[in-house]
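Let us practice reading a record.
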Amino acid sequence: MTATISRFTTQRAPCGEMQDGERYLTEDQQGLITEELRYSCGCRSAKEEFHDGSVHRRQVHHKGRVLVDEELRGE
């Protein structure tokens, strides 16, 4: 499994504001990839790509409201 943490600058957060933050990326070498963005305002965005090609996306506003929570089926 590999994991990386990196900083990003000036990216649009789920709240609509331009924010800095951190990107967390993990990969298990068998096809599972998880990416989480944590914005300086407190918003979060996560995407998981599973072995079967399906994807789960979730975006949370910094006040706690879930804006997106969807699962897309792979082929």
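A brief commentary: The longest strand covers residues 2-12.
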